[in-house]
Design a protein that fits this description.
Order of helices and strands: EHEHH
Strand content: 5-15%
Oligomer: single chain
Strand order of the largest sheet: 1-2
Shape: rod-shaped
Helix content: over 70%
Radius of gyration: 37 Å
Number of strands: 2
Distance between the termini: 85 Å
Number of helices: 3
Structural class: mainly alpha
Length: 132
């Protein structure tokens, strides 16, 4: 027996593919028992395309979730964490110099620290833009 022939048909109706294989065998004189038919039906091809589309839909849904729901929530959490850290710094710094929390001196100290932080942020932004 000779080497088995393998035919692969993509996108063609199975009947047309099979007829082409039979005519090829008749022309070559190959025994039908040696032919191995490996063809994909349109349902199999559309199934793999459906899987890829489903995967793409899941990825888009996750991206939209991060963009619209998780992103703003993370920004709010970051802002609250920054405000808490600044309040802790103000409290520690002002009390270190004898200005207890709740006093007018403490409020003045906190305002002065806020001004210092803003000036530093302005310098950092100017340096990032290449102005300084």
């Amino acid at each position: 027996m000779g080497k088995a022939l393998t035919f692969v048909c993509y996108g063609e109706p199975f009947r047309n593919c099979l007829l082409q294989k039979i005519f090829f065998v008749i022309k070559r004189g190959t025994d039908m028992a040696e032919i191995k038919i490996n063809s994909r039906t349109p349902n199999e091809m559309s199934r793999s395309a459906l899987i890829y589309l489903l995967l793409l839909a899941v990825l888009v849904a996750l991206g939209l979730h991060v963009l619209l729901i998780a992103g703003p929530a993370m920004r709010v959490a970051d802002k609250q964490q920054l405000e808490g850290a600044i309040a802790d710094e103000d409290h520690g710094f002002c009390e270190m110099f004898g200005m207890g929390a709740g006093t007018t001196k403490f409020v003045a100290c906190s305002r002065a620290l806020a001004i210092i932080r803003q000036k530093q942020a302005d310098r950092d932004n100017a340096a990032a833009l290449g102005i300084l």
